[in-house]
Amino acid sequence: MTRCWDKDPNERPNFTQCMHQLKVHLKLASPQLLQRVELDLVEESKRQDNLSQWLTQNANRDGTDSLITSDSSSPKRGERIYISDFSR
Length: 88
Description:
This protein has one domain (about 1-65, about 80-85). It is built from 3 helices and no strands. It has helices at about 15-30, 30-60, 65-70. α1 packs across α2.
């Protein structure tokens, strides 16, 4: 964990490395909890997929299309982070 505050940014772990380390520690501390968390992440990923599909289908109806689409020349207001990214 202390590597996250290393003076040299190149020595700091990236998000994937942090996730891996946390998963290793959780597996050692409580394998049952890790299994539960992974199952919850799968379920949340399904909910996010359903929401994304719904947003895509309904975007033009209510003017929310700008929330889910952008071209590369315009600045992004936000970035979607999907739960499935955490379970890889």
